[in-house]
Design goal:
77 strands; single chain; 1097 residues; mainly beta; 8% helix
């Protein structure tokens, strides 16, 4: 026998269609609406728990900020009868233990079991076999020695027959302080369960301390305890310091999760910290110690991190990390609530050593050796209001893990009107009266929890209403368990001042299959806590790890339930046990419970290995050194992004006529550009040129080699920008260098008009047909006036490499070319004449035809009407080999707070709203049916003080629904209005009639803003370089995807993994093709980083 089976569970199937994902079923017999989940009547099932809470003068939310954080719930089979029991923690009420009697009937055995909590303020709870006797024990976290609260953490040892004995002191884990939750794990793989105790501080969160203070241990900080059972002893030993665990007063721990995040078979730990302190990601070093590695693997986290869950969402065997925050969904609540840090506060935190944090949920996509990519904005799970417990589990048994989130707080201390009032004096009132008045001011609103259904491809949709889970509540801890053993996971929620929610799952009516797995491990970890189980069928793998502690203050059952969709048979079940041993069980049946016994399966080895990406490539020891001295928000408080980090420039060409590609790479401010000559060996050596040093003050944004003076040798054009200097400033001047054909260059001072704009692109073409090359120079931004149209120029070559500005002659005196990020000449219609194609911020793809040889006329093309976005890069190529040129675009992507469609565009309102001589850029975005400012009321008032008079409170401001609620019709009539409809990167494919059809790149390419698009015609492959850290704080950095590549095949894009040296957090600005020793490479230039190589052959 390879395993023991508990028998098949027959699924009930309805003859009528059961619409789980989108609809409701009406029973013809009962005339009753049925949903996926049914809220049970607590009196009927025997669970009468309610976490009732009342504030007093001495203990309330003003005295204890976490007063309304609530408590958790744990699920586990305490008597090994095959039925999952429930334990609820209470703050001012007794904890309760409910014994599952079957058929959704429960019995309160708290008193007889002796597990009531001894009158302490209980918070988190989890179940595990702490002493290795085969019975689940209960560990409860409590608050102690504060405002009259006398509790300390409890360990209830299971004696069998429904009896427990509290032995935390005997076992050395009776922590006293601000206990939040605990997690059991076998971190040293010695066969017994160790314990991580999560705590929270009560210091003022507004008082910043340097991040280095996390090294200073405090008695009330987090603790790691080593279990001594494997050594034949009873109890635990505090190994916090020696194991490398932080235990300082900076920690406001609200969530702890344990999973093997890097696939090495050892348990790692993730800690969610509220307020200023970073979250912690502890990687197990396999020697009894951990390394805190968050900033090396994760680019940004939740600002007010609360609960977390770690689970595999995409079937690659690696867990994602989900953390909750408190970004409202309702625009009215959002507009009167605390939002992101002000730019000034953000800068202080960075100076103090803290990582990037933003007020929203975060979903960290596990990319293996490349760390994590944050994708919550793409997945649309970034906002769920004041959220506590995230649980990742398959709610509808379709084979895709979903996300349930509890939310709500009885009094909202982040209400901005309350904060403003609390800072005012209150003459005539004593301290208690002031406190009472402030508490009464706090808004109270019940909200429904959220149920995000996994739609595939990391996309989610809230189904709380259609699934029967939308009851308004103040919900805190939550867990899931198959309470009735029917093969689906029921949901249990611990509410505040409201009876607990017990939801019965009716997935059995859908026809979806399932598996239930119980683990029986060797040694003292008999329930197999820490084991990872995989179910395999066809080309699909589903993984779960039994971790015990999940969500917020809560614990899950040891029985794992796998939804399988319509699958009728599986191929196998794999288990990697907590001690690292791996087995496979060749089982086929679905709708079955399997009891997997360690040692009874077939041994196998399945270590996750990433394919090697090493390859031979040249070494160029150069690094872009961005100084980022400029803070553009001090000059333009509402500017949405920085233009100070758009370099480096990169140009490739044979400058010494030896048949080999050489390259020029432009420097940042105070860094000269460099020219590298390729040798016959494939090595590159730097060719020094003193003139480059003389222009080191300039920020090189764009560069290109061409023969401008007609001598047969490549010359060099370098365009400068950086948004630091005003128009006409010396170090904004573009430069032309004439090449000698031997690798030497001479600066030609009078070659160009001295415009001094922020050059973003150059497009070279013989526009007037006189045999020499002319140049269109595109500019991205007016320094100090984002949203205005900068001066771009058409420079006509006099034949000797000296250029004249002929913009007005060719475009007309009234032409407004807008903010240009990219421009290119290409013959789109095959008539032998190249059109000028340009685009940038707040404008679509614009095409100018050279109809008469002396003017450029803009022409509208069908299919480009809604192409307006934040396009950074354009490439024209015939990607589908139909003889017609297509247009590839690199845009902002979908992993952003900015969301735009044809029906609901984002708008830029640009102008002088308050007649102070300074234009301001106001961005309006749609939230529901409202079109409201993206900036906060405070930010708007800083620039336009008159808004404070019109909306004298945040409550008043939150009621606006359109721009007319802020400004008069007269003001708006003089404001420039520009829409954005499309943020996706992709290709506009040209049809036979000259129109275009947009085909977006695959979702992976939408996770990051794309700054460079490069087309490899030989391989029909597009190379995309991304990442950008220069957005405003309320948009947040996006360091999600530095490089992706796709091949066009059979009229669709196919992912193509190319070997590359590009690192995950690199910010790629330019990718150019280069030949080295007959081998084709892509060369990628990164901002504040080195040059990277991509192997194309």
């Amino acid at each position: 026998m390879l395993l023991q089976k508990s028998g098949s569970i027959k699924m009930r199937r309805l003859s009528a269609l059961f619409l789980i994902g989108v609809g409701l079923l009406t029973s013809c017999q009962e005339k009753k609406t049925e949903t996926l989940f049914e809220l049970m009547d607590n009196q009927e099932i025997g669970i009468d728990f309610e976490n009732t809470l009342a504030s007093t003068d001495s203990l309330n939310i003003l005295e204890y900020l976490y007063f309304y954080n609530g408590a958790g719930v744990a699920a586990g089979d305490i008597n090994n009868d095959g039925l999952v029991d429930l334990y609820f923690a209470g703050n001012q009420v007794s904890n309760r233990l409910y014994l599952n009697k079957g058929n959704f009937q429960f019995e309160d055995i708290t008193e007889s079991a002796g597990v009531g909590g001894d009158g302490g303020w209980s918070t988190g709870v989890t179940m595990a076999d702490a002493n290795g006797d085969g019975l689940l024990d209960i560990y409860v976290s409590q608050i102690g020695d504060y405002k009259g609260l006398k509790g300390r953490n409890k360990l209830y040892i299971n004696l069998g027959e429904g009896k427990f004995e509290e032995k935390a002191a005997e076992y050395g884990i009776d922590f006293k302080g601000f206990g939040t939750q605990a997690a059991f794990l076998d971190y040293d793989r010695d066969g017994d369960l160790d314990l991580y105790v999560l705590t929270h501080s009560v210091k003022s969160p507004e008082v910043f301390a340097k991040a280095s203070q996390r090294e200073n241990a405090d008695s009330g900080g987090d603790k790691l305890y080593k279990n001594l059972a494997s050594e034949g002893k009873i109890g635990f030993e505090d190994v916090t310091e020696s194991a490398g665990i932080y235990s300082s007063i900076l920690g406001f721990g609200l969530g702890v999760g344990v999973e093997d995040v890097n696939g090495d078979g050892w348990p790692d730990i993730y800690v969610s910290n509220d307020f200023t302190e970073n979250d912690y990601l502890y990687l197990n070093q396999q020697d009894g110690t951990f390394i805190e590695a968050l900033e090396s693997l994760i680019s940004n986290t939740s600002r007010y991190s609360m609960g977390n869950d770690l689970a595999d969402l995409n079937g690659d065997g690696l867990p994602e990390i989900f953390t909750t925050d408190m970004l409202p969904i309702d625009p009215e609540i959002w507009m009167k609530s605390v939002g992101e840090d002000k730019q000034e506060v953000y800068q202080i935190k960075k100076q103090y050593g803290y990582a990037d944090q933003y007020v929203r949920n975060h979903l960290q996509l596990n990319q293996g050796k490349d760390g994590f990519s944050e994708v919550a904005l793409f997945s649309r799970v970034f906002a769920s209001d004041w959220s506590w417990s995230p649980l990742i589990f398959d709610m509808d048994n379709d084979g895709f893990p979903d996300i349930h989130i509890t939310n709500g707080i009885e009094k909202r201390p982040n209400d901005l009107d309350f904060i403003q009032y609390s800072q005012q004096s209150n003459p005539g009132l004593d301290r208690n009266q002031v406190s009472q008045k402030q508490i009464e001011m706090l808004p109270t609103v019940k909200l429904p929890n959220l149920s995000f259904q996994n739609m595939g491809g990391l996309r989610f949709k809230d189904q709380a209403e259609s699934w029967g889970l939308a009851q308004p509540s103040y919900s805190n801890g939550s867990t899931y368990a198959d309470l009735d053993n029917d093969g689906d996971l029921d949901l249990i929620v611990n509410n505040l001042n409201q009876p607990a929610f017990i939801y019965q799952n009716h997935s059995e009516k859908s026809g979806n299959s399932f598996l239930r797995v119980n683990l029986h491990a060797e040694g003292k970890n008999r329930f197999g806590l820490g084991a990872k189980v995989g179910v395999h069928f066809g080309d699909k793998d589903i993984y779960q790890q039994y971790s015990g502690t999940r969500g917020f203050m809560s614990g899950t059952s040891s029985t794992l339930v796998f939804g399988l969709g319509k699958v009728e048979a599986i191929d196998s079940i794999s288990v990697r046990w907590a001690d690292g041993k791996q087995e496979i069980f060749h089982e086929k049946k679905t709708n079955h419970t399997y009891n997997l016994i360690q040692g009874s399966g077939n041994h196998f080895s399945n270590t996750l290995h990433s394919p090697s990406t090493s390859f031979n490539h040249p070494q160029i020891f150069w690094k872009h050194e961005e100084k980022n001295k400029l803070d553009e928000t001090k000059r333009e408080y509402l500017i949405p992004k920085s233009f100070a980090s758009m370099g480096p420039a990169l140009a490739v060409g044979d400058v010494n006529n030896d048949g080999l590609d050489d390259l020029y790479v432009g420097g940042a401010q105070d860094q000269p550009g460099s020219l590298f000559i390729q040798l016959a060996s494939g090595e590159f050596i730097e060719k020094k040129n003193e003139i480059f040093n003389q222009f080191s003050k300039a920020e090189d944004i764009v560069a290109q080699f061409s023969d401008f003076n007609g001598d047969g040798n490549l010359d060099l054009y370098v365009g400068s920008g950086g948004n630091e200097h005003p128009s006409g400033a010396l170090f904004n001047f573009d430069r032309v260098f004439f090449g000698s054909g031997k690798g030497d260059f001479q600066f030609i001072p009078m070659a160009l008009p001295h415009d001094g704009e922020n050059t973003s692109s150059i497009a070279i073409n013989d526009i007037d047909g006189d045999g020499d090359l002319d140049i269109f120079v595109g500019s991205s931004v007016v320094s100090g006036d984002y949203g205005a149209s900068p001066k771009s120029s058409l420079l006509i070559n006099r034949g000797n490499g000296i250029f004249l500005d002929k913009t007005q002659e060719w475009f007309g005196a009234e032409a407004e070319l807008g903010m240009i990020n990219s421009a290119i000449w290409a013959d789109l219609n095959g008539n032998g004449k190249s059109e000028l194609i340009l685009t940038g911020d707040w404008q679509g793809i614009r095409i100018f035809e050279n109809a008469d040889g002396k003017s450029l006329q803009e022409k509208a093309f069908k299919g480009l009407e809604f192409s307006s976005g934040w396009i950074q890069s354009l490439v024209v190529a015939d990607i589908n080999q139909d003889g017609r040129m297509d247009i590839l675009t690199g845009n902002l992507g979908l992993n952003s707070k900015f969301k735009a469609t044809e029906e609901k565009p984002i708008w830029l309102y640009h102008g002088d709203f308050d007649k102070n001589g300074q234009a301001d850029p106001l961005i309006f975005h749609s939230t529901g049916d409202r079109l409201v400012p993206f900036a906060t009321r405070d930010d708007l008032i800083k620039q336009i003080p008159g808004i404070k008079k019109k909306h004298n409170s945040y409550l008043s401001y939150s009621s606006i629904t359109k721009p007319e609620d802020l400004f008069t019709a007269e003001i708006l009539a003089n404001i420039s209005k520009k829409p954005i409809y499309e943020f996706r990167s992709g290709v506009y494919i040209q049809d036979e009639d000259g129109s275009f059809e947009f085909v977006p790149f695959p979702d992976e390419a939408q996770l990051s803003p794309i700054f460079s698009v490069s087309w490899d015609e030989e391989k029909s492959t597009v190379l995309l370089g991304g990442n950008f850290s220069g957005f405003r704080v309320d948009l947040g950095i996006n360091i999600t995807s530095a490089f992706t590549s796709f091949q066009w095949e059979n009229n669709t894009w196919i992912k193509k993994d190319l070997p590359t040296t590009i690192t995950p957090k690199s910010e790629i600005r330019n990718i150019r093709k280069i030949m080295v020793n007959g081998t084709s490479f892509g060369l990628a230039a990164s901002n504040s980083g080195p040059l990277y190589w991509i192997k194309l052959d």
